[in-house]
Write a structure and sequence with these properties.
Number of domains of chain A: 2
CATH class of the largest domain in chain A: Alpha Beta
CATH topology of chain B: Diaminopimelate Epimerase, Chain A, domain 1
Number of helices of chain A: 7
Structural class of chain A: alpha/beta
Strand order of the largest sheet of chain B: 1-2-3
Shape of chain B: globular
Oligomer: heterodimer
Largest interface: A-B, 36 and 58 residues
Distance between the termini of chain A: 74 Å
Strand content of chain A: 15-25%
Chain lengths: 241, 123
């Protein structure tokens, strides 16, 4: 019994440690289920790409001059510090600021940052914090080209979803891989059709060769005019099954 | 198919003849003789040996049609009747057994014919 308890405790500690929150909400303004979903999406993204995204809700925001310090303190703890993204959002004022590592910084130009700020402020004003965070996550991951398929619309209303715990996202393959698979499938189909349906087999004493169905067609006209012209002769027929 | 290749090889080694087998699965083919002649001339089998004795056996497995085309000199030597009988026998074999077995029987017949008329002279 004690051994079982010990195992349970160890497992719980392990899972608690491994499921570190990517969306931090110290003031608990977000719905807990929604928060769990966002964390799960970001965790899956991190697993797939090693790019960690951390979104922190706090009021007031860290001073702009200190934001780099906060980032520098946090980024080395991630799996790929140069690709870590830190976003701070204020649920009171609707402000947003972010800092990204050198590996992904080029993705977030001024225009994108302004757009993200605007999205957060607008969502907070009209829909509340939960959809706002969700939209930020979606925009960030879209920009970072996540290998996860995010559903076109994540459920904004979460009342019915609490028990089912569905995440409306599924791992998917990257586009180049998909193109490669489709290309291989196309070639395989072509080879299958060619070998199975169209090509003809020519057997000689030395080898077996595949011959195109149009092989020898240039003699068609000559053969039509005079069959005996090009050969000695022969016999043709058909057999019953 | 390996057995057929071996038999073709044997004909090539033991006689001065040359037999080719051509298998097609063309669903829309109407005249097997026409296609066989195209193949025969496409591979220039008439001139493959100076004795003009090559034979092409053409089979359309999907339409269940066949044709046997021979070079000019072997045809002149054996006459049309020989090919008619060979064709009849081949037709019967194709109807009663798998096409590879029928081809094997045909090749044995051709081997014997070649041995009789075009045996390779051993030094």
């Amino acid at each position: 019994m004690r051994l079982t308890s010990l195992l349970f405790l160890t497992t719980s500690i392990f899972f608690a440690a491994s499921s570190r929150a990517e969306v931090e909400d110290p003031a608990q303004r977000l719905d807990s289920v929604h928060l769990g979903k966002m964390n799960e999406i970001l965790r899956l993204h991190t697993e797939a790409t090693q790019e960690t995204v951390r979104i922190r809700l706090q009021n007031p925001l860290t001073e702009t001059t200190r934001l780099t310090d906060v980032y520098v303190e946090w980024a080395p703890t991630t799996s790929k510090p140069t690709s870590a993204v830190y976003v701070e959002i204020s649920p009171e004022t609707g402000e947003l600021q972010m800092k990204a590592g050198i590996g992904v910084d080029a993705l977030f130009d001024d225009r994108f940052r302004k757009d993200l700020s605007k999205t957060w402020a607008k969502s907070l004003k009209h829909d509340g914090a939960n959809p706002g965070v969700e939209r930020i996550v979606r925009k960030l991951l879209d920009r970072m080209e996540t290998p996860l398929t995010l559903a076109p619309e994540l459920p904004l209303s979460l009342e019915n979803d609490e028990n089912e715990n569905t995440f409306t996202l599924t791992p998917t393959v990257r586009l180049p891989l998909l193109i490669l698979v489709l290309f291989v499938a196309f070639i395989s189909l072509g080879v299958f059709l060619w070998r199975g349906l169209f090509s003809e087999i020519h057997l000689t004493s030395e080898r077996e060769t595949r011959v195109a169905p149009w092989f020898g067609k240039r003699f068609s006209r000559k053969i039509r005019e005079d069959r005996d012209l090009l050969t000695g002769g022969g016999i043709a027929g058909e057999w019953a099954p | 198919m390996i057995g057929l290749t071996q038999l073709l090889h044997r004909i090539h080694d033991e006689t001065r003849g040359d037999v080719r087998i051509h298998l097609s699965r063309n669903l829309f083919e109407k005249d097997p003789m026409k296609r066989a002649l195209e193949i025969f001339n496409g591979f220039q089998l008439e001139n493959v040996s100076t004795e003009h004795n090559a034979v092409l056996v053409y089979l359309n497995l999907r339409r269940r049609k066949f044709a046997i085309v021979s070079g000019s000199l072997i045809h002149a030597k054996l006459k049309q009747r020989y090919w008619d009988i060979l064709g009849e026998q081949f037709k019967e074999d194709l109807s009663s057994t798998h096409y590879e077995n029928a081809l094997t029987l045909l090749l044995y017949t051709l081997l014997e014919t070649y041995k009789k008329h075009y045996a390779r002279v051993i030094d």
